[in-house]
Specification:
heterotetramer, A: 454 residues, alpha/beta, four-stranded antiparallel sheet, 36% helix, B: 503 residues, seven-stranded mixed sheet, three-stranded antiparallel sheet, 12 strands, binds pyridoxal-5'-phosphate
Chain lengths: 454, 503, 503, 454
């Protein structure tokens, strides 16, 4: 029997007495007996923290995939980047961790200013003027972008490149059941979006990946032209690390930037909590989903920060709100601000550059192996797709024996067939490299794959 | 019980030092400074323009910030000294369940055996994670009285929308078109917003003088085009919907489904289960009931549990326990599809399981009992100054009214809330639910001691005295916080959302 | 360089909330409350009186405290909001080297691979630890120019006493009885205190008008009964003893040994080594130079390195690198014996090694250069208001004087120090060294930016203006700290050292 | 090349210019060239934090003894107690960690109050009215107690029971070289001090262990009588966990209590930093070593805390100071206050009781094994000494193969012969059990020892 309750039996007795009651059950007496739970919950009695720690030790030991055990070459929107002790220490300060949404700005300047700094950083990386205070993850950000496009155009057709991560596309399809959006997927041909192959007329949004999820750097002029022609919003799903050196969404003429912010200080975390990045152009700000922090002054004219444009949000606008989001991922946004502050202007560029260098170094070694072929001949950034002589899932399992998490199997992400690639997905492996990977680790990967395929 | 013992929940720490606002990271930046240190990799270092076609490279350098590690630490540490938090003091924010969250759960989530696992790694290499997810699903179903659940939704609102899409899938599968979803006028804003995104129209049902759903009004609204109703029970004023059985029957009679908004689940753990009340779909806010700290606004987790007839529609893939004791990813046949980029907010889910394991069935029941006890004690203690909107036994929170202070001294609920900040307490939820005039909603939670509740009550008594003696100064409260009352109107009039925005 | 960029080192965080002092843990206690949770062991639970003879059991229960985990967290978190620290702002406390200490080193020390190792475990099972100790000893010797070292002393003072016992062992081994140890009148208090505990008499040598040891006075004091001299170089006023070669020769000529107090080592890393200056015994304050945070007063580590002729006397056992690359515990033949219960403050030693490895020889040299640059920049920047006691190039710290403010406005150095607290900076060291009138000793350290130094200078300028405009209020500074000026006399008059003491 | 220096080359240049200098070296120009280091330090160039982490990973993996790898039954003043996440989180708050000695009480109330609470707790546990703010470790506390006894009696003879940990006795002997104390060790006979066997006349201090380091509960009345007879101070070296249920030092009539505070929230840490506990009677307070915090008021009459009785200390009293200690172990004292707050009155008693239960349970099992004998037949608390059929060091190595750190070899602590035991020390193993040890772990110990000795 363990809990975190302060009350002693005497406390409970005298509190009940104050209420003129005899038993705690009296507090629930007005609940219809017919539905009241008799006999309590069918869950084992509580045990102490150390006992639970022992249980969890059995779980963690059954996760050989952890990055401190298998060298991580898997990406797909979740990357094994350096997160220094200083970032963990600062973002882990209990004032950040145990605060609620900053409803009372007078005692929430810490979180509010950190979010303001986060918004500034995301705006700069996207080349767009406005960022919100975070959304759940990249997939949610994409869905919100589609809703924004719908709001802006009152149209339903969403033209989405298959270069967008399969999971994100699946999420978009799921929510389209409710919004009624008509999702049109644009196949990739040799790694790049074949915009011509679909009817984009009357589109609300044109959505492209940059780099796309196969790592390819697509020329986005065509997507931009299409968006302009149709009066649709151009939405880019971008890699925020690559964004530090690549043409920005703004420079490409995009209206909305969405991305996965896990790369900024959040651990791999088995997929969550992550950080949905969302930035947009000035003219979409009234349709912005979720919270946004603005600068203002207090009654003594000192600078202060506060959540603003609240009239867009669910608690005020209710069924007419731009989004239903309430709780978001603020702590990850604060973490991102700390991590980016630690990386700094040069550090972030350095990380991006090293990712690209590592990926190209590995790619060169691998393209040497017989039976292994590049899935396309496009320029890539930090990630690339290979066709293997056998099923990618099998190769990944075999590579684990060599201490390597070799990448992601496209079949596991997108199923047996996916518009992102011609033919079967079964033999497609997506490999990515971060700044943490050493030459030794990369060479070991190559040697291991040779053995596995031999 | 000695209410004389010093309160624990009061942030009595006085000013540390200095009076200036903290500069931004960008104001602290000096060209050439840096803090980062990266691993030595030995990877051949080709320049970017050899690796990336010129047309893709940004000719300009994107400015981030340039500070030393020391200044980074100083900056964010000082920001934390400008931030209230549960760990600093009582945070009786109604509807938010700001209980103390065990540090043990932080440690669980920080274990690399969980936190360093890539979500795309194959099930064979992540069996521990799959077991955590499958086990949590099982326990959440036992707690709510449902058949199965999805753990993907990242927060309550995401759970709501997921639930509405399940509702839609269910009706469509039965080939029946329905248009409207009913919600009470006291509902949380995410409910109507989710209804819209679910492709339904909101039909509002009024609240009766007892603060409950007006059953007759409900019956009047019900019809064959009603897809379902969204309720939170206890409802947003903190009262239990005593006619829930009749409500359920009525809705089911027209073929509608009952959706349970689990934000207030903390009140009924072990006492009554949504499933037993007749609900078909239930979302939970793990960040409220199951102890994930709120992180300044998130992350959370909003798993959705459903009755047997809806299981086949659940999002997938789901971590599933196999006959042989191993675990695999499985997607229900008629699944509505993914609602999260990966598997949901996994680390939040792991914390929740740890929290449930520590408490067990008995502990969770005590959690609800003490949460309700605290709310009622506070309601009764404050009855003179801030009478309850509905004066009877409440559940985990109580909706009080500042109407008296307003009429007598022109001091509004907001002023009382702001004055509480000066007293070292966080404010209650103000002006929610919208149907209650001058609402101050207090949710003390089960982790606050009676001494802390007494200290809060005494602070409110002092504020009431000020309302009489010096209403003007109350109207400008708070006076002792990092910043004084903030000009919200100005922020909205002229949006400055980044350090680069024109000023 | 833009001195306009906002300062990083200034704790500008304003009051959070509340004005009361924090209750003690005991005032918060309520009988029956608890926070602890222990592992379920299944060990047969006999009652104590079956296990322990009655005459050994305390008939009374010793009261500790009875608080919930939530109140425990609130209490200590609030206490931290009443505490200044390096992480909050600049801490220019002379002679204390309050530099920023990398969080990375915290992480190194927290690794169970180091922190969960029992000190009595055999060497075969702790080779990693022995390698850390042996490697650190080697590097500290390279840094100081000595032959070997002991890592056992837990702090600087412990190092001093250890060094003096080595001095004694050396002389005794040479069968020569010596009585006196010379220290400058500017020496830190631990020096004379250690001399006494070392069984020697203190002979004080005066400081000349240049702030250095008076060589003639020294020669006059020297004699065959002098066991040695204790110096810190740079000395405690922050100046380098330029005649160190002559001093060393003179002391050695009478058969004495030179002891180097390493508290100020930060100033000379990579520039000059105690060994090369002629010192025979050197202690280091790892918690100053090698980045262990001071923990509110400790822990530290005070390794002692010695010249070849003293190696055989070092305390033991020592982690020693073997021919085969393995490590073993070895005790020098004529060892003076243990000076610590185990192996010294091991985790502090591990941090220091990590810090040295990150910096490397080049980085450590830059550390000293920038520390000295900062001290000189500040000295020069403040020359008008707070002139230096000795107006020339200083090392890592500068000793300034408030004599001007005192004579003009009756504002003392202490008042300036207290006023700085209101400005969001920690105070400098006041009234040390004792030989300097109205001394304010500033040690900015290398981790503070020039913007922070400028902000400090501007704060002092403001204080100087107040000294003129409103000296009275300065004499009562600080005004905006958690408590105002504290009555130290009263505390000493009537000792209340526990919550149970009569009041 | 890595460091934590903020200055850019431009900063350095302009700062030097401000000083009228050209190069950083100019700042050191006044150092005699003859001693200046040319060519810099002979230490490899710096590398990044992750690189250093990689080096340290090789160290940690070479420490199989770590308690999360070998189940710990070793004690001797260093015990494997539960330290919960909440204690680590609170004691690890950077305001506690990165503050200096509280010289400016106006901004140091956090540390000062925590120390005040610590002093109160140690005073209660010792049954004595005064505790200082910490010393380095138990051994140092013992030495300071001897110095205090010398100050109180002006005598040099220190009569120390061999029931005091051998290391502490060694440290006392080392420092006696400087103070000139005459250390007289009292042998143990069948585990208890044979006071009669030594000449205690003119003693300054009578020092006993409680329980002694072999775990034995000695009747201290004889020691007390001796101290009274000689007008010496009675000093107890006590186990602070056991102290929560045993007769207190005060109840035994002791003048000074010393002990090792590691047991209160500090990890095993390979022996340091630990926490030297020191408490004494009213009449010794002016001779108290180190810092002490007192309660007072601020100028607004609000309660405040401050370091007091400073006139005893080295910075003021210099060569006449009661001790030379300056930096102490404050962070461990704060940790102890947090840990004791977490344990609470009942929790601490529970820990003490479980230690005793576990030790007695293990003792019973082991006394069954042939060749294994109790080293004495005295009552013990949480620790006991065994005689084994072979060398204890060898048995410990062998037990490690079974995943157990079996205890401490007396020979490793006290050498081939030690007055704490009759005959050779070689076959003596000291075993201790904490509240963390499960029945399973204890039974596994017994099974393993059987196999090892077979
Ligand atoms: C009653 C109610 N429903 C739904 C929500 C939405 O939950 P979330 O913020 O996790 O999206 C909340 C949270 O504020 C709530 O209080
Ligand atoms: C010059 C000098 N010597 C010696 C010491 C004593 O070092 P410690 O406090 O580590 O015992 C100090 C520390 O304040 C010092 O400044």
């Amino acid at each position: 029997m363990a809990d975190y309750l302060p009350h002693t039996p005497e406390d409970v007795a005298s509190m009940l007495e104050f209420l003129g009651m005899d038993r705690l059950e009296d507090l629930f007496a007005h609940i219809p007996a017919a539905v009241r739970l008799s006999g309590g919950l069918a869950i084992e009695p509580g045990v102490s923290e150390p006992d639970v720690a022992a249980i969890f030790a059995t779980y963690t030991s059954a996760n050989p995939a952890r990055a401190n055990n298998l060298t991580c070459f898997a990406g797909g929107g979740a990357y094994d980047h350096e997160v220094p002790a200083v970032v963990r220490a600062l973002a882990g300060r209990s004032e950040f961790v145990t605060a609620y949404t900053p409803y009372q700005p007078e005692v929430a300047q810490g979180v509010l200013q950190a979010i303001f700094e986060y918004q500034t950083l995301i705006a700069r990386l996207s080349g767009l003027p406005i960022s919100n205070a975070s959304l759940y993850d990249a997939a949610t950000s994409l869905v919100e972008a589609l809703n924004m496009a719908h709001g802006a155009t009152q149209r339903q057709k969403m033209v989405i490149s298959a270069g967008i991560h399969p999971h994100w596309r699946q999420v978009a399809r799921t929510f389209a059941h409710g919004t009624g959006h008509d999702i049109v997927e644009v196949p990739l041909k040799n790694g790049v979006s074949d915009w011509a192959s679909v009817d984009a007329s009357g589109a609300a949004a044109i959505v492209a990946g940059y780099p796309n999820y196969l790592g390819v750097l697509e020329d986005l002029s065509e997507a931009k032209a299409l968006a302009t022609r149709e009066g649709a919003l151009l939405v880019l799903g971008a890699d925020p690390v690559a964004a530090s050196v690549l043409k920005t969404a703004g420079q490409w003429g995009a209206d909305v930037f969405v991305g996965e912010g896990q790369v900024f200080g959040t651990a791999l975390s088995f997929g969550g909590p992550y950080l949905g990045l969302f930035a947009c152009s000035e003219d979409q700000v009234r349709r912005l989903p979720g919270r946004i922090v603005g600068e203002t002054v207090d009654s003594n004219d000192r600078r202060a920060f506060v959540t603003t444009l609240r009239a867009r949000e669910q608690d005020i606008r209710r069924e007419k709100a731009t989004s239903n989001v309430c709780t978001n991922q603020t702590l990850m946004a604060v973490t991102a601000a700390v991590q980016l502050g630690w990386l700094g202007t040069r550090g972030l560029r350095e990380v991006a550059t090293r990712c690209a260098q590592g990926a190209h170094y590995l790619f060169e070694q691998l393209s040497g192996l017989d039976g292994v072929h590049a899935a396309n001949d496009q320029p890539f950034f930090r990630e690339f797709a290979l066709r293997l002589p056998s099923a990618a899932t099998g190769v990944i399992e075999a590579m684990a024996e060599h201490g390597v998490l070799a990448g992601l199997a496209l079949s596991a992400l997108g199923g047996a067939r996916d518009p992102s690639i011609e033919g079967s997905t079964e033999d497609v492996l997506i490999v990515s490299v971060t700044e943490r990977r050493t030459k030794e680790e990369i060479d070991h990967y190559v040697r291991s794959l040779k053995e596995v395929l031999a | 019980m000695s209410t004389l013992a010093a309160p624990g929940g009061r942030a009595a720490s006085a000013p540390l030092t200095g009076h200036e606002t903290e500069p931004t990271l960008f104001e602290m930046s000096v060209p050439g400074r840096s803090a980062h240190q990266l691993r030595t990799t030995g990877v051949p270092a080709g320049s970017l323009d050899e690796l990336v076609p010129a047309e893709h490279l940004n000719p300009d350098v994107v400015p981030i910030a340039e500070v030393s590690e020391r200044d980074l630490v100083g900056h964010f540490t000082r920001l934390t000294h400008r931030q209230f938090s549960v760990d600093l003091g009582m945070y009786p924010l109604g509807s938010c369940t700001m209980k103390y969250n065990p540090k043990f759960c932080d440690a669980v989530a920080a274990d690399p055996g969980l936190s360093a696992v890539h979500p795309g790694a194959p099930a064979s290499l992540t069996q521990g994670w799959l077991e955590i997810l499958a086990t949590l699903e099982e326990k959440l179903c036992l707690i709510t009285g449902m058949a199965a659940a999805t753990l993907q939704p990242a927060a309550g609102a995401a759970g709501e929308l997921t639930g509405l899409l399940l509702m839609r899938a269910f009706h469509e599968a039965n080939g029946d078109e329905r248009r409207r979803v009913i919600i009470p006028d006291s509902a949380h804003g995410t409910n109507p917003a989710s209804v819209t995104l679910g492709g339904y129209e909101v039909a509002t049902v009024s609240t009766n003088e007892r603060g409950l759903v007006d059953l007759d009004a409900l019956k009047a609204t019900l019809g064959p085009d009603v897809a379902g109703i969204m309720l939170t029970n206890p409802n947003t004023v903190g009262l239990f919907e005593e006619e829930i059985i009749e409500i359920a029957r009525a809705v089911h009679d027209v073929g509608g489904l009952l959706y349970y908004d689990g934000a207030n689940l903390n009140a009924i753990l072990g006492a009554v289960r949504p499933g037993d009340m007749g609900f078909d779909i239930v979302h939970m806010n793990l960040h409220k009931t199951f102890a994930t700290p709120h992180g300044g606004g998130g992350p959370g987790a909003g798993p959705v549990a459903v009755a047997a007839r809806l299981v086949e529609f659940l999002p997938g893939p789901k971590a599933t326990r196999q006959g042989d004791g191993s675990f695999a990813w499985r997607t229900p046949e008629r699944s509505i599809g993914r609602v999260h980029g990966w598997h949901g907010n996994a680390l939040v889910l792991a914390r929740a399981l740890a929290y449930i394991d520590v408490h067990g069935g008995d502990g969770l029941t005590r959690v609800a009992q003490h949460a309700v006890l605290n709310a009622n004690w506070l309601r009764h203690r404050l009855r003179e100054i801030l009478p309850a909107a509905y004066d009877r036994v409440c559940m985990h929170e109580c909706t009080l009214q500042a109407t008296g202070l307003k009429s007598k001294y022109g001091v509004r609920g907001l002023d009382v809330a702001k004055a509480l900040l000066d007293e070292g307490f966080h404010a209650p939820t103000v002006y929610f639910p919208l149907i209650v005039d001058e609402a101050l909603m207090f949710e003390p939670t089960e982790t606050e001691s009676v001494q802390t509740l007494e200290a809060l009550a005494q602070a409110i008594e002092r504020i009431a005295e000020h309302a009489q003696s010096d209403p003007e100064s109350l109207r400008h409260a708070p006076h002792h916080t990092p910043v004084s009352r903030v000009d919200e109107a100005r922020a909205a009039r002229r949006l400055i959302a980044t350090a680069d925005a024109a000023r």
